[in-house]
Amino acid sequence: MNIVLNGEKYEVFKEDITVGELLEELSVKWNIDLSGAVVLVNDEIVKKNKWETKKVGKDYHLEVLSFVSGG
């Protein structure tokens, strides 16, 4: 299944995936902690308490924003 992730096409290999599952996959792939990320699905913010129930569908547009501090 294809989605648009942060403006780029991205292939998801699981058809019935939740936002939480996708973030787990991305955390491993990108080697960053996304537990504090902000997630938008089709331009709507998905609150963290909904990550495990909000499904991601074909051609959905997702933005995953993670804030990093540094000096």
Structural features, described:
- This is Sulfur carrier protein ThiS.
- Pfam families: ThiS (PF02597).
- InterPro entries: Beta-grasp_dom_sf, Mopterin_synth/thiamin_S_b, Thi_S, ThiS/MoaD-like.
- The chain has 71 residues and is α+β, with helices and mostly antiparallel strands.
- It has one domain (2-66): Ubiquitin-like (UB roll), CATH 3.10.20.30.
- Helices cover 17% and strands 34% of the residues.
- A hairpin with a 2-residue loop joins strand 1 and strand 2.
- The chain is globular and about 40 Å long.
Keywords summarizing the entry:
single chain, 71 residues, alpha+beta, Ubiquitin-like (UB roll), 5-stranded mixed β-sheet, 1 helix, 17% helix, 34% strand
Rg measurement, Å: 12 Å
Binned, the helix content reads 10-25%
Strand fraction:
25-35%
Strand elements, count = 7
CATH 2nd-level architecture: Roll
List the helices and strands and how they pair.
Layout: E1 2-5, E2 8-11, E3 17-18, H1 19-30, E4 38-41, E5 44-46, E6 55-56, E7 61-65
Parallel strand pairs: 1-7
Antiparallel strand pairs: 1-2, 3-6, 4-5, 4-7
Give a summary of the structure in a few sentences:
This protein is 17% helix and 34% strand. The protein has one helix spanning 19-30, and strands at 2-5, 8-11, 17-18, 38-41, 44-46, 55-56, 61-65.
